[in-house]
UniProtKB/TrEMBL annotation:
UniProt-listed Pfam families: LRR_1 (PF00560), LRR_8 (PF13855)
UniProt feature, compositional bias: Acidic residues: 379-389
Alphabetical list of InterPro entries matching this protein: Leu-rich_rpt, Leu-rich_rpt_typical-subtyp, LRR_dom_sf, RLP_Defense
Keyword list, A-Z: Leucine-rich repeat, Membrane, Repeat, Signal, Transmembrane, Transmembrane helix
Full protein name: Leucine-rich repeat-containing N-terminal plant-type domain-containing protein
TM ranges: 406-427
Signal peptide as annotated in the record: 1-25
Keyword Membrane: yes
Region (Disordered) location: 364-399
PANTHER family: OS01G0750400 PROTEIN (PTHR48064), RECEPTOR-LIKE PROTEIN 51-RELATED (PTHR48064:SF1)
């Protein structure tokens, strides 16, 4: 009996340790970079190619010890291959550089094994000369708030990229096409907050594009119907530009699309009915444009939709959704459409949609109540804690994460219990 209770307390101690570790969300296995770097390097004792070490040093990169073996200094990251006799850099991220940092051609030439190069808050001039070896080897290039200013011609040289990210740096170019048209292997392209002008490309060359983000630029003209050739596209963000015209019907051919934003442009006309073919759509933002016409009832076919923002447009007529469709949204906004109204026999005023009820002819009743002018009242996710908010809704947007945590907790608890029981049974068998 004494032994058994001792065993029990050990089990309980182990159990609480296990739960404590689990709460930390730390992965129970070593991080992949650590495991990849250490054993192989230790085995044949290879260190970083001295030319590359010199290059890093010339860039003021802290190289106390071997940059491949030692954990990278906090903001600057390196990753190496396992070649012998010398290892080579495959990935380099320069963060928070001094403005005096000098990227010499010699240093860049020595780095032509890099597959990934990233600049983060490095306010240095872009290197004028890009060694062709580096250009050929790079698969991923990222520049965030770095390199002061770029040109489309400079960026267009990276023709082997699969990932291009340029954020928060002015890019001078006649349009995105000059940058994108030579990058046939691109899967992810973000050129956002760059003050880029021109038009959305009409000809697409990277047909495997999965993410396209051209938001917060000065792009003009229409969304071309040729965009439908991007059959793998999952994310499309064209928000905060100066786009005009109507959305093409061909948008319904983007069968992989999960998230689309055209917010903050000057787009007009109706929502294409073909939009309801986008069955994987989770996030759709058409807010702050001049879209008009009635909202297609067929949108309620989009069962996975969790975020729909149609506010600040000129939509008209009766909102064609019922309470059960609206219930599953995390964000649903239709405010700021003065000719749009809801059927009060189908939808409660407690939903605070930010639009007025319809009269029996399907027209907005007048005068509109005060709250129709307050945009924030139409946001479901804000309703959670308000006094009379919620209404027909059973769970607010904020409640979305709580049940999953609860489920996780119960699952962990149950598995611990089962583990405990099995352990005790085994123990009693052993002791008996
Ligand atoms: C990152 O590297 C730059 C030079 O490339 C250096 O000036 C800076 O101090 C480094 N930052 C950290 C946090 O080590
Ligand atoms: C792209 O990579 C291939 C080899 O992987 C290379 O032959 C080619 O020159 C590279 N293209 C450019 C534009 O650097
Ligand atoms: C874009 O231009 C505006 C003024 O036109 C400027 O304030 C802003 O800093 C520019 N953005 C970038 C990333 O250069
Ligand atoms: C597009 O890039 C901007 C950065 O300027 C970012 O805020 C936005 O979330 C990105 N869009 C998507 C869909 O990731
Ligand atoms: C939508 O606006 C356009 C002008 O931008 C107009 O020609 C069209 O008739 C409007 N459609 C509806 C249904 O009001
Ligand atoms: C509102 O819904 C009811 C019930 O479906 C229907 O009878 C009525 O015609 C609708 N009113 C308007 C204005 O659409």
């Amino acid at each position: 009996m004494g032994r058994r209770s001792a065993a029990l307390s050990i089990v309980l101690a182990l159990l609480s340790y296990y739960i404590w570790i689990g709460g930390d969300a730390a992965p129970p296995y070593p991080s992949p970079t650590a495991s990849r770097q250490d054993p192989a390097a230790a085995a044949h004792g290879s260190t970083l190619d001295p030319r590359q070490l010199t290059a890093l040093q010339s860039m003021g990169f802290p190289t106390v010890g071997d940059p491949c073996a030692a954990p990278s200094p906090r903001d600057n990251a390196t990753a190496c291959d396992d070649d012998a006799p010398f290892r080579h850099l495959v990935s380099l991220r320069l963060a928070n550089c001094s403005p005096d940092l000098d990227l010499t051609t010699t240093a860049l030439r020595a780095l032509s094994t890099l597959r990934s190069l990233a600049f983060l808050r490095c306010p240095i001039p872009a290197p004028r000369h890009l060694p062709s070896g580096l250009v050929a080897s790079l698969r991923s290039f990222s520049c965030a708030a770095s390199l002061r200013r770029l040109t489309g011609v400079w960026l267009s040289r990276f023709q082997n990229l699969t990932d291009l990210t340029v954020i928060g740096v002015p890019v001078a170019a006649s349009g995105p096409a000059i940058i994108l048209s030579h990058m046939r292997h691109l899967r992810s392209a973000s050129i956002a907050s760059t003050n880029l002008s021109g038009a959305v490309p009409h000809h697409w060359h990277a047909l495997d594009l999965v993410h396209l983000n051209l938001s917060s630029n000065h792009l003009e003209g229409p969304v071309p119907s040729s965009i439908s050739v991007l059959g793998s596209l999952q994310t499309l963000d064209l928000s905060s530009n100066a786009l005009t015209g109507t959305l093409p019907d061909s948008i319904g051919d983007l069968a992989a699309l999960k998230s689309a934003s055209f917010a903050h442009n000057s787009l007009s006309g109706p929502i294409p009915v073909s939009m309801s073919q986008l069955t994987l759509l989770v996030h759709l933002d058409l807010s702050s444009n001049q879209f008009n016409g009635s909202i297609p009832r067929s949108l309620s076919k989009l069962k996975g939709l969790k975020f729909l923002n149609l506010e600040n447009n000129n939509f008209q007529g009766v909102l064609p959704f019922d309470a059960s469709f609206l219930q599953k949204f995390e964000v649903f906004k239709v405010g700021g459409n003065s000719n749009l109204c809801y059927n009060h026999t189908l939808l409660s005023h407690k939903l605070k949609l930010g639009i007025v009820p319809c009269d029996k002819y399907g027209l907005p009743v007048s005068p509109p109540p005060d709250r129709s002018t307050r945009a924030d009242t139409s946001d479901y996710s804000d309703n959670d804690g308000s006094d009379d908010g919620g209404g027909d809704r059973k769970s607010g947007g904020g409640g979305h994460h709580r049940p999953s945590k609860l489920v996780l907790g119960v699952a962990i608890g149950l598995s611990c219990f089962v583990f405990l029981v099995i352990f005790l049974v085994c123990l009693s068998k052993l002791c008996g």
